[in-house]
Amino acid sequence: MTDYIPISALQHYLYCPRQCALIHLEQIWSENVHTAEGRHLHEKAHGNSAEKRGDFKVVTGLLLSSESLGLYGQADVVEFHKQNDRWHPYPVEYKRGGPKDIMADQVQLCAQAICLEEMLGENIDEGALFYGKNRRRQKVKMDAVLRERTQQTVAAVWEMLRQGRTPPKPTLEIANVICPSCSLVGDCMALTPRTSAAKYIQSIVKMVWSLYLTHCMSLPKTAIFARMVSAWHSIMKISLKEGFLYIPLEG
Ligand code: SF4
């Protein structure tokens, strides 16, 4: 285990602890349409540049670290506003989608702010999230609640990595909400521990079928197709390994 974890692990953990473990513990990573678009946006934002206009400076791709939290990462954009002869940092994180219910984006931004505070010796009381979907900038206050949440998330990720155990799959109800957008869906299913192979395969088939029925209308056909192929590939691999083939007869 390393002494530092990437800031992105916090976001992965809040989205799905199992996803976080698959990426940061088991070193599995798969790209899908969502991650590819997100990566493209971040590559544009992380262009390593600095621009100054009067009392305003913009730096992109700034490398970050925090010794106290054991975090490292890279900021999309850090604005610097000159106040009383001091350059005051203001982190801005770019997101391809829209605002989410979970606090993952806010926690990620707060972690960046804590890194900047440690690196620059400046207090940061606000930053912003820019959402590509509505092209809106949302201000985020670095208040005590958000800082506490960020520290709790860091501690939870460290604990999970220390234990070295990948959490189990969530319930079907939660999976229906989070798994359709997850690029690891195929790998995730293939790595599920199996006490009863038949039961396991059945749960995967139900999950894939349910994902398909729930989301086939809302996602691009190519994304659905890629995810279905990936999931079915996992099922076939396991079915053959276990020496049987399960044919789903019900939805
Ligand atoms: S497929 Fe679902 S359970 Fe598995 S890692 Fe992704 S979000 Fe988590």
The description of the largest β-sheet is:
7 strands, mixed
Helix content: 40-55%
Number of domains: 2
Number of helices: 9
Describe the protein's architecture and organization:
With 251 residues, the protein is of the alpha/beta class. The protein folds into two domains: 5-163, Alpha-Beta Complex (Lambda Exonuclease, Chain A), CATH 3.90.320; 172-242, no CATH class. It is built from nine helices and seven strands. It has helices at residues 8-15, 17-24, 33-45, 104-120, 144-163, 172-178, 185-190, 197-215, 221-242, and strands at residues 5-6, 50-53, 56-66, 71-83, 86-95, 126-131, 136-141. A hairpin with a 4-residue loop joins β3 and β4 (71-83). α1 (8-15) packs antiparallel against α4. The longest helix is centred in the C-terminal third of the chain and has 22 residues, at 221-242. Bound molecules: iron/sulfur cluster.
